[in-house]
Amino acid sequence: MSEIKGFPFLRLTIFTAIVSLVVWIIHKFWPEIIYSSVHIIIVFLFFQFALNYYVLTLTLIKYKDKVNATIFNLGSIVFRLLVCVLIVFIFIYLDPDNATLFVSNFLTLYLFYLGFEIYSVLTNLRPNLKQ
User: Fold this and answer.
1) Is residue 99 a contact partner of residue 92, using CB atoms and an 8 Å limit?
2) What range defines the domain where residue 22 resides?
3) I need a labelling partner for 61 at 20 to 30 A (CA). Which of 32, 76, 89, 113 fits?
4) Residue 39 maps to a domain
5) What is the pLDDT of residues 4-33, one digit of tens each?
């Protein structure tokens, strides 16, 4: 990820701004396919991925051992998935009339953020593979 003094989440912030703009444009033309509180989903995913990146970065710096880092990374992925499932169930419970719309929007945005995370990790690992 891009490291600028005092703001290590520049790529994630730019990605979130682009996703928000695309969602806003889609909402203007086809409001029936966008959940009314989609901004909550975007903010939640931004903070979840930012926190995950921050915690993983600090942990990987702390643990030089690759086994512990891998176990912690997999644990954070499972934890993030469980938190997302819990959030989906809470929203379905609170708004059962729009459950399908919420789940489809949440899943779409989650997959976009996951793809962005995979791309960022691969981009950061490429220079290390050439050594």
Assistant:
1) yes
2) 10-123
3) 113
4) yes
5) 444 568 888 999 999 999 999 999 999 999
In a domain? residue 44: yes
- Residue 5 lies inside a defined structural domain of this protein: no
| Among 6, 16, 17, residue whose Cα is nearest residue 48 | 16
- What separation, in Å, do the N-terminal and C-terminal C-alpha atoms of the chain show? 19
pLDDT at 30: 94
Q: Which one, of 113, 126, 104, 83, lies nearest residue 9 by Cα? A: 113
Q: How confident is the model at residue 43 (pLDDT cuts 50, 70, 90)?
A: very high
Report if residue 50 sits inside a domain: yes
For the residues 60-73, what does the mean pLDDT come to?
Answer: 70
Supply the angle between the helices 38-62 and 66-94 in degrees, to the nearest 10: 160
> Look-up: residue for tokens 């994630």?
12
Tokens representing 9?
């989440």
